[in-house]
What we know:
The complex is a heterodimer of chains A (about 180) and B (about 200).
Chain A lengths: L2 H12 L1 H11 L2 E6 L6 H8 L5 E4 L4 H12 L3 E7 H7 L4 H6 L3 E6 L12 H13 L3 E5 L2 H18 L2 E6 L1 H4 L8
Chain B lengths: L9 H9 L6 E4 L3 H9 L5 E3 L7 H11 L5 E6 H6 L3 H8 L4 E7 L2 E2 L5 E2 L8 H8 L3 E5 L5 H10 L4 E6 L14 H13 L8
Amino acid sequence: xxxxxxxxxxxxxxxxxxxxxxxxxxxxxxxxxxxxxxxxxxxxxxxxxxxxxxxxxxxxxxxxxxxxxxxxxxxxxxxxxxxxxxxxxxxxxxxxxxxxxxxxxxxxxxxxxxxxxxxxxxxxxxxxxxxxxxxxxxxxxxxxxxxxxxxxxxxxxxxxxxxxxxxxxxxxxxxxxxxxxxx
Amino acid sequence: xxxxxxxxxxxxxxxxxxxxxxxxxxxxxxxxxxxxxxxxxxxxxxxxxxxxxxxxxxxxxxxxxxxxxxxxxxxxxxxxxxxxxxxxxxxxxxxxxxxxxxxxxxxxxxxxxxxxxxxxxxxxxxxxxxxxxxxxxxxxxxxxxxxxxxxxxxxxxxxxxxxxxxxxxxxxxxxxxxxxxxxxxxxxxxxxxxxxxxxx
Lengths: 183, 200
């Protein structure tokens, strides 16, 4: 692989937020529930610009689980975008997905994961996968940019084809650790 | 419709609100509201909750956004609404015209030993909804105010938030089905027809 091909592949991999937006369109996602995370900023901008998607900004992530329950009752597909810390807020509400067999795909950007600067992010970041799995969620990780789109694609398919909560955790190595200017 | 306490009877209130409901979809918060809508009549357009405390209003929002041509009514308790009180802000910002939320406010946690909720101590859910930006809000304490609430639910122009002060005594349990996938599938079929169960 020559230098130029290598650079263009790196650039393509860095475009994963646009790839995720295209995936949401392909899968007919109409409701996008979120508590913002810097790692999702570009995807959120794309969704906000799309008149066919309803972006629902939440006060806490568990609202998004309940929203997805209602969307599915009404025949619409949704996804929940959040940071790993928000997963902790969803735990009891995930009972809805198990009780009713509701597709609930989640796209989670990790903190407290790879080179974290903020000690407060580490406890929940370290527990994210364990607690999701404890609540019946099928979890897959993407730790390289080129893995993000295929992994989220699988996560969305698994949710809607098999009627359960699913999540992709996008590793902090993909997003980059926030350093508060202390590099 | 008044109980001996001089407050509204929750089940009679429920019956009046659901009278001649057409194709309205109803979400009921866990506990007494779920028993109440079931006592009025269990049907596919009912989604009584057994859990997910704090989520009833947001389930209503997701459903109302997905089905803008149908009326969606959330009937829930004060404890359940307080647990998800931030959702009042989320719903007010989304402004779904077809969504109504009615809190049957008995000022107590009825399923756990009648401990007092914050509404017993002056917390004003109607005021919170108004401050969040709900365009229509109502406080209902008298039977003669109930027809106007029912009319407002059917009118649209929401989102509407109402609190009805109800008597705190517990009524006989009327339990809805407990099989969650059945509750979901029957409502989806009522909304989408048989296609609900086929590959999207």
